[in-house]
Write a structure and sequence with these properties.
The protein contains eight helices and eleven strands. By secondary structure, it is of the alpha/beta class. β6, α3 and β7 form a beta-alpha-beta unit.
């Protein structure tokens, strides 16, 4: 554990046992003393890490407001241990729960980007099953990709990709964001099917704000519209950004994110 700056702690925790054990890197900004309010929890996307623009800006917002912020890298991502190819939604969800168990915030606002939106929705489902769990004041989803394995990948698989999944246990796809290809494993696809959330009413028990670019090449805005249909019990705001891409990391996009998160504090 290291003290990187005033109020900021960098640490690692071990999640899992035996061959499944992996070290998860966490950056925790403590709230200023006696400052009431939730901790912001960043849940990154597939192959993203906690040093990305949106994650850093969320931490900066927490600093400005005197609130706590929690960032971490999933296994196989960023500073955390473990192999990326071993990653599944269940595995990364387990890590998110372990981080909250370690930090023990009383209240949180979950901020999920892309795949992190899926993790956020599964996380709130799991927290609602617990007697002792942080209260979720709000959820902010940026280009959310819940159920992306079944909804966005499987329908578009080529014959070659299906053969690769069957014969090799994975297939590769060119990435627009990295020189390394995206890797999708059979385990990820099968586990994704077990973690689907868009199969019935999703009860979060809190306000939900979705930010979605209409020029997103990875997650079409129709996916966000479909997600809203599964959130009939919640106060949901959907902001469609006409010229927005998947990352939504431009200054004007960041301002919308900060406004949505700030609104969640007082909702």
């Amino acid at each position: 554990m290291t003290q990187a700056a005033a109020g900021i702690t960098e640490k690692r925790i071990t999640v899992g046992e035996g061959t499944a054990a992996r070290e998860i890197a966490i950056i925790h900004r403590a709230a200023r003393k006696k400052k009431p309010g939730p901790a912001f929890v960043w849940l990154g996307g597939y192959r993203s890490d906690m040093s990305g623009t949106k994650a850093v800006e969320l931490d900066r917002l927490a600093d400005e407001l005197g609130l706590a912020a929690i960032r971490f890298d999933y296994s196989g991502h960023g500073l955390s241990g473990g192999l990326f190819r071993d990653g599944t939604i269940s595995r990364w969800l387990e890590e998110a729960l372990a981080v909250l168990d370690d930090i023990k915030p009383k209240r949180v606002v979950l901020v999920g980007s892309s795949m992190g939106g899926w993790i956020a929705l599964r996380l709130v489902q799991e927290l609602r099953k617990r007697k002792k769990a942080p209260g979720v004041d709000g959820i902010v989803l940026v280009a959310p990709a819940p159920d992306f394995t079944a909804e966005l990948i499987e329908p578009n698989l080529t014959d070659a990709e299906r053969r690769s999944l069957s014969e090799k246990g994975y297939f590769e796809e060119h990435s627009e964001y990295s020189p390394e290809p995206n890797i999708y494993t059979r385990d990820l696809m099968e586990d994704g099917a077990r973690n689907r959330v868009m199969t019935g009413i999703i009860e979060t028990g809190c306000p939900v704000h979705i930010l979605q670019g209409m020029k997103d090449p990875d997650v079409p805005y129709s996916h966000a519209l479909k997600l809203v249909e599964f959130l009939p019990a919640d106060d949901v705001v959907l902001t469609l950004i006409r010229d927005g891409d998947h990352r939504l990391s431009r200054p004007q996009d960041i301002e919308k994110l900060k406004a949505a998160v700030s609104a969640s504090i007082n909702a």
